[in-house]
Design goal:
Layout lengths: L6 H9 L4 E2 L2 E2 L18 E5 L7 E3 L5 E6 L2 E6 L6 E7 L13 E3 L5 E5 L4 E6 H5 L6 E6 L8 E6 L5 E6 L11 E7 L10 E8 L2 E8 L5 E8 L6 E8 H6 L5 E9 L1 E6 L5 E6 L4 E6 H6 L5 E6 L4 E7 L5 E6 L8 H4 L5 E6 H6 L4 E5 L5 E6 L5 E6 L4 E6 L5
Antiparallel strand pairs: 1-2, 3-30, 4-5, 5-6, 6-7, 8-9, 9-10, 10-11, 12-13, 13-14, 14-15, 16-17, 17-18, 18-19, 20-21, 21-22, 22-23, 24-25, 25-26, 26-27, 28-29, 29-30
The structure holds 2-acetamido-2-deoxy-beta-D-glucopyranose (NAG) (8 copies).
Length: 403
Amino acid sequence: MIFNLSVGQLLVGALAWIGTVGAVTIPSCQTVAPPEKNLTSVRTAEITVPAPPFGVVYAQQNDIAFVTLNTSLGVLNTSAFTPSLIHEIPLPASYVSVSGGTGSALTHNGLYVLVTASSTALIVVDAAKAATGSPEAIVGVLNGTAAAGDSAIEVTISGHDKYAFVSQEYGSPQTSGRGTIEVFKLQRPATNGTISGTYVGYLVLGDAVVGTALSPDGRILYATSELASSNTTQGTLSIIDVEKLKTDPSKALISNVAAGCGPVRVLVSRDNQVVWVTARESNALLAFDASKLVSDQNAALLASVQVGTSPVGLIFAGVNESRILTANSNRFASLDPSLYGNATTGLSVIEVDAAIRGEQANLGQIPTGLFPREFAISPNGKTILVTDYGSSMIQAVDVSTLP
Ligand SMILES: *[C@@H]1O[C@H](CO)[C@@H](O)[C@H](O)[C@H]1NC(C)=O
Ligand SMILES: *[C@@H]1O[C@H](CO)[C@@H](O)[C@H](O)[C@H]1NC(C)=O
Ligand SMILES: *[C@@H]1O[C@H](CO)[C@@H](O)[C@H](O)[C@H]1NC(C)=O
Ligand SMILES: *[C@@H]1O[C@H](CO)[C@@H](O)[C@H](O)[C@H]1NC(C)=O
Ligand SMILES: *[C@@H]1O[C@H](CO)[C@@H](O)[C@H](O)[C@H]1NC(C)=O
Ligand SMILES: *[C@@H]1O[C@H](CO)[C@@H](O)[C@H](O)[C@H]1NC(C)=O
Ligand SMILES: *[C@@H]1O[C@H](CO)[C@@H](O)[C@H](O)[C@H]1NC(C)=O
Ligand SMILES: *[C@@H]1O[C@H](CO)[C@@H](O)[C@H](O)[C@H]1NC(C)=O
């Protein structure tokens, strides 16, 4: 593979702090990724939606999915391979900032979709009512505090649906602009079906806190900060004790580990052993040994895989999580065409075992619309949806046709 680095890239690389841990090196910053093989034989289909789609999540059945569409929650009929938008449930305007709807997550019991909208609040949607298009699908709003932040991005739900952890990307003046994880305790539904909650508190992390993921045993919450502090180009992966987060959030941090330039999303393997992170400004997918993140951080980095330009979302695909797809957003192209204009968007397909062995693992890139951002996979594992935020499209990927 030819790495055609520009002077700018070399400068950024040289200025970045380059750490070495174990046998694998934490990647420095990189503007444009080298070209990838074009995977045109993967079956995809796309639809246009009325607003930039951000978070997407399937219901417990395969034929319904939900997507945040700025001021509404879109309901997709996914019974056919090509999805169709069948309803839009307006989100409560006073809890949606101008940046609009962001993350979404389904409770483990399948009853509710929790939605964030770049504000202080967590919006609770009844999944079954939403599937019918009922405006009464909004069954609760849990409003946080200004101190934790008003730029909520992702939500992760604890194992028994009792707590919700919300990333507040930019925190507040009280946190000196450092992002936080805000904690809500969810109450049982009232007899009229509404959901309320108790605000527990928040944990301050680094700058621009976005991605969160729970370990499958429910004990650890992982969160990314794009920058460890405003004086570095390196971001962090934070390892957080969930039991403490539920009761005393400000004391829940176990440790932080360097996670490349601009880490933005995190994913944990079903066997609880490997934590995967997209380092957006390194154009890399990183793999960490989950147990060493707690016991031996300097040896925790297992792999660093070159992917496409500015990866954001990531998801497992295939039997036994044999593949990972990254959403190569090229999101800075519109901000600086002179640097990013030649980069492409797409989904890199990564062979998980090869990545862990340190071998060539990038199988190529599936073309997408602009700024592919987040993923969802159907419960039967057959279809992956990706939100193309920059071209207001939702794209379906047929998992059986992946290399
Ligand atoms: C990749 O495939 C897409 C779809 O066929 C095509 O539009 C694009 O030009 C191809 N890119 C490269 C680099 O070959
Ligand atoms: C979301 O909708 C609001 C209100 O219509 C609008 O001002 C804003 O520009 C929209 N945001 C995006 C990202 O489309
Ligand atoms: C989804 O579309 C299929 C095929 O058109 C239809 O049979 C089914 O009733 C639709 N489901 C919902 C929930 O609208
Ligand atoms: C939600 O909480 C924030 C922070 O306390 C407050 O500024 C805002 O007015 C509240 N929103 C509503 C609709 O009550
Ligand atoms: C539903 O019940 C809750 C708890 O009793 C109450 O606070 C709320 O106002 C009720 N909402 C409606 C729409 O009746
Ligand atoms: C960051 O740099 C500024 C200016 O050099 C300095 O004042 C500040 O203390 C630094 N902050 C940290 C956290 O190192
Ligand atoms: C998936 O993992 C299970 C359990 O380890 C194993 O029995 C099975 O053979 C694996 N399937 C494939 C296709 O690798
Ligand atoms: C983009 O491609 C054009 C044409 O090949 C080339 O002249 C230009 O230098 C490239 N820009 C960057 C930033 O690589």
